[in-house]
Amino acid sequence: MWRVRSGLWVLFWKLALDAAVVMACYAIALLLRFDGQVPQESWRWYLYLGPVIALGYLLANSLFGVYQAAWQYGGLRDVSVLAVAVGLATAVTFGVNFSFHHRPIPVSVNLISGALIFLAMGLLRVGPRLSAGNLLALLAGDSGARRVLIVGAGNTGQLLAREFLQNRRWQYRPVCFVDADPRKAGVRIHGVPVQGTAQDIPALVRRYSVDIVALAVPTLAGAELDGLLAICQAADVPVRIVPRLGDILSGKAQPGELREITMDDLLSRQPIDLDYGQCSQCVKDKAVLITGAAGSIGSELARQVLSFGPASLYLLDNNESGLHDLRLELLPSSAECELKVCIADVTDRPKVFRLFEACRPQVVFHAAAYKHVPLMEENPDEAFRVNVMGTLNICQAAASAGVEKCVFISTDKAANPSSIMGATKRIGELLVAALSRDSDAIFCAVRFGNVIGSRGSVVPIFWRQIDRGGPISVTHPEASRYFLTVPEAVSLIIQAAAFAQQGQIFMLDMGDEIRIVDLAAKMIRSKGRTVEDVGIVYTGLRPGEKLREDLVGEGERLVGTAHPKVLLMESERGQSFSGEKLLAHIRALDAGLREGVPDLAARIHALARLGCPGAGRDEGLP
Length: 622
Prior knowledge:
Elements: H1 2-33, H2 40-63, H3 76-99, H4 107-126, H5 132-139, E1 146-151, H6 155-166, E2 172-178, E3 188-189, E4 192-193, H7 201-208, E5 212-215, H8 222-234, E6 239-241, H9 245-249, H10 263-267, H11 276-283, E7 287-291, H12 296-307, E8 312-317, H13 320-330, E9 338-343, H14 349-359, E10 363-366, H15 373-378, H16 380-401, E11 405-409, H17 420-436, E12 442-447, E13 450-452, H18 458-467, E14 472-474, E15 480-481, E16 483-485, H19 486-499, E17 505-508, E18 514-515, H20 516-526, H21 531-534, E19 536-538, E20 556-559, E21 566-571, H22 579-593, H23 600-608
Parallel strand pairs: 1-2, 1-5, 5-6, 7-8, 7-10, 8-9, 10-11, 11-12, 12-17, 13-16, 14-19
Antiparallel strand pairs: 3-4, 15-18, 17-21, 20-21
Helix pairs in contact: 1-2, 1-4, 2-3, 3-4, 11-19, 12-19, 14-16, 16-17, 17-22, 17-23, 22-23
């Protein structure tokens, strides 16, 4: 009730102010028309008709929604609406006055007053945006504000400048623009001049004492961004970027915020077009189980799967704290989904079978695994126990519980594996192929490479090393890898799962190969530092690591699918061996682990090569 009354009072004062404006403008128009000597008859008619004319203008404003507009954010459209409303009222007043044979108020007064009314009403409404504080900030500067050079004089740039000028809480003052279009040079936007192109940034930084460069170009590509970072690095000025529109719409960022450069920006990965209908059909109204749910891939899988509306979602991991945090995050979005946390180890076979029997999942994403290459070289028994035996437990439990589809999360390191981690993941792929032959459940695997931001990846390690002042440690100057973001990888996993058929192995499109040293240099420049200041040291390849990752293994080839970023791995591998023989070798090696198997790493690698061309004999296998 209080808000209603308050709103009515505000509207009353708006109407009263506009009525006063109309009366005042008509009086001024009369004085202008008669050069200050207004006849008494005209004054009398003005006093009689003035309130009626004012009411006409108020009705026109109400008709066109002038009083509903939020003028503190008003733009050209709002001014145009006001012009139409005032123009209509002026035209009606002019027509009525013109129809009179005797006109004590000349018709020219209607036109003069209409122009004055539009100017006065417009100034009253844009007044808050031309407040004394904002004018002083623009003309004299705000002593506490950071001076900003904005790259990009388009829509995003002008909106950013306007936000900074209107909202002083950001403590930024735009001093100039640069833009790739030379025709904009010399133009002023909200009073801020466009002073050249990106090549002029170093000179402009010195001339305007710029504190920070803000990138306001939504279509900025990786190579262009890297070039801009190099220019800003030479100018010794930090760089920030405007938030993405999606982040603003979702509430993760606000207009006017500036964020630091991220790996998504540096790698310039293109947005993925998913077949949402097909992905939704894969999981909607179904029971879905995710292993390794507390990890980087598993937790993002949980978020994205939940968005497609499953009937129930089971999160399995042995990481209690991680599961607790994930459940708290997902609970607000799971009103129509049964969300269950299952604390268990995938190597605990009896418990895994009991969970599957109780949950009866229809779709399973198996992401639980050990993934750190150097650690698994030192602990091959644990790699085999989790990555092989854990996968066997999950797949057999899935077949026993009658799942529709089981998706095994693999890695590009499974192609011609040189590491224990890669070899154990390759054995997992062989299991998928073997179990798919005698099961009604669809078993498939999805390979992809390094994931930006996952725990243990080079990116967060490099950020920490830069923040500490350096140096950055790189294994080899020619070491190269393929990278995906976590959301991108998970979206494509779900897409692959949606159209997967029995025993298929998919490889995600990883984009261009990136040298690790080049990645480190980009990250250094994004912080406004130089490679010379931070430093890069080479530590040598670690055990099991490759100089470059393989996308396909021996005897494999990639073919296209219904989605351009999901490729199907066609292979002779996995077809030239017996599933029973594979399972027998796995069980024999598992039994030998408890007794201490000699040459365990060699046996794991031999098992991973089962079915390869030229590996027909069981050399090195238990």
